[in-house]
Structures are given as C-alpha cells and as structure tokens.
Write a structure and sequence with these properties.
Oligomer: single chain
Helix content: 25-40%
Number of helices: 10
Largest sheet: 8 strands, parallel
Structural class: alpha/beta
Shape: globular
Radius of gyration: 18 Å
Length: about 300
C-alpha cells in the first residue's frame, strides 16, 4: 500500500482514544527488545512471506532452495504463511510450507496484464487441487490500484470458486474497499482486509485503536462473514509519514501490540512482513524496504 490523501488519520473525524496497548512507559530500550523477541518466540497466527533477496524483484524466477531456506527460518514462529503469486517460483511457497506443517493462504496476483492473470489463476487452481491451498486469495489490492474493473475481478473470483468448491476463496484489499464494493463481499467466502495505521499517517499512540476501527469497518461490511487481517505492520526506518514515525522503537511496539491484541481478541492476523526487501520502494518510498521482522540478510532485526 501507500499513502492516499482521502484516507488519513484525523482526530477530528473520529472519536479516538489513546489506546497504546502494552504500557511501554517504564520499559527501557533493552527491555523493549527483549519483549519484542519474547513476543516473536511466542508465535503468531500468520506471516506474509517475503520472496526476494537483495538484487531480486518480481519477475525474477526464484529457486525452490531459496524458498526452503526462508521458510526454515520463519517456521518456528508462525502457523500460517501467506504468498502473493503462483508463478515465477512463488509456486514453491505453498508446497514447501505444507511439507513443513504450515497452513497456507495462497494468492493469485492480478493486474492489468490479462494474459498473465490467466496464468496466475490456472496456477492457483492447480496448486489447490494438489492439496497445497487452505485459503485462496484471488487478487491483492486490485481495486485499490485500479488495475481491473469490479466486473473483471468478480469474474476471476467466480471462476476460482467454481473450480474449488471445497476451499475458502476471498479477495484481499484495503479495509474500506469492502464498504465501497458490497458485491465483492457477497461473492467471497472470507473477507481479507489490509489494515495499515502507518499508511494513514497515524501516530503510534493511536495506532492500535485505529487498527481496531479499521477491522471494525471491514467487519461491518462483511455481512457476518469471517474477516482476516491479511496485512498490517510498521517500518523500522525510512521517511516518516505525517504523525507515523518510521523507526525501530515504533516497529517493535507495533508488533508487540498487534500480537498481544490479536491473541486476546482471537483475531487472525498475517503480519507484514517476514524479511526486508530492497525492491519495495517506488510508490512506497524508502520505507518500502524496511517492513520485515528479519533484515534483508535474513537476520532478526532486534
């Protein structure tokens, strides 16, 4: 995701309270790092899989060995892995994850290249029929990026649902897109919602409360269907965005708060992300490269 002017944090728009979650006021920097590591070691529901090493980018074909190495690193800390594509080596992710006893949310990447979309959809269906898919995610932020019309997207989701009648099928987008597009809610089995207080310029002290309100909006739109937070996170360095400050302290606090709250409230969250990826700049700016729990060299950050 990236900043959108019409979706930004504002105390004037909502009745926000300070809900910082864990009381960090008497915790030293060293104690914060210890708490972050303890939280990580306690495990989490899900983790978004970062595919690319330094110098790699989408379009490069990634080896199974690279996927195996990275899944081995994150396996002790998560029950689920989320992938974003089914081609160019991404197909290794659910296969290797399943061999390691992990559950999988497998995404078909959809964009404005219709031929590539066909390849992605066919690959997703094949992986699912082979037994490697627990939840099928048909597209990621397609409406957010305006890559396809709503009718085109509905067609892809319908095709996957018809091909995979025994697997939950959903679509991933920013939380507010489900309010704006109830037809998407109707066709999905599960609502897959990205919730980023950071990208709305939210200060850390309000970030947990803001994420709760994001989830609340998606839940209100979901018509009783399960809502999963498919992405949330905080960058550990880079340029800050309005009141959202990008630094190691806030990245640790946000991770701790998210995991403590998710466990307490039984909310299914896929944290973004596993490893830093240098290619993720461009529209996201320099912070795009610093969303991982591990750095680009596959070392724990804190």
């Amino acid at each position: 995701m990236s900043y959108r002017e019409d979706h930004h944090f504002s105390l004037a728009k909502n009745n926000y309270k300070v809900d910082a979650g864990v009381d960090f006021s008497k915790i030293s920097e060293d104690e914060l790092r210890e708490l972050w590591l303890e939280t990580l070691q306690n495990g989490m529901h899900g983790l978004c899989f970062s595919m690319y090493e330094d110098g790699q980018k989408p379009g490069d074909v990634i080896t199974e060995e690279q996927v195996q190495r990275r899944i081995k690193i994150i396996k002790p800390y998560t029950k689920w892995i989320r992938s974003f594509s089914c081609i160019e080596g991404n197909e290794h992710i659910p296969r290797v994850a399943k061999k390691n006893g992990l559950k999988t949310m497998v995404g078909a990447w959809l964009g404005d290249d219709l031929e590539m979309n066909e390849t992605e959809i066919e690959a997703l269906v094949s992986l699912a029929k082979e037994g490697y898919v627990d939840i099928a995610a048909v597209g990621n932020e397609v409406l957010y990026r305006n890559d396809l019309t709503k009718e085109q997207l509905l067609g892809y989701i319908s095709r996957v649902k018809e091909a995979l009648p025994n697997i939950e099928v959903g679509y991933v987008d920013a939380y507010y897109e489900f309010t704006q597009h109830p037809e998407i809610v109707d066709i999905c089995d599960v609502i897959l919602s990205n919730c980023y207080p950071y990208w709305e310029g939210c200060p850390m002290e309000y970030s947990l409360n803001h994420m709760q309100q994001m989830l609340g909006q998606a839940t209100a739109a979901a018509k009783g269907k399960k809502v999963i937070i498919t992405e949330t996170g905080w960058p550990s360095q880079g340029s800050s965005l309005k009141g959202a400050v990008s630094n190691a302290e806030n990245a640790m606090k946000y991770f701790i708060n998210t995991q403590v709250w998710a466990a307490k409230e039984d909310v299914e969250v896929f944290y973004f992300s596993s490893f830093d990826e240098s290619w993720k700049v461009g529209a996201e700016g320099d912070v795009g490269a610093y969303w991982g729990l591990w750095d680009k060299n596959e070392k724990l950050k804190f």
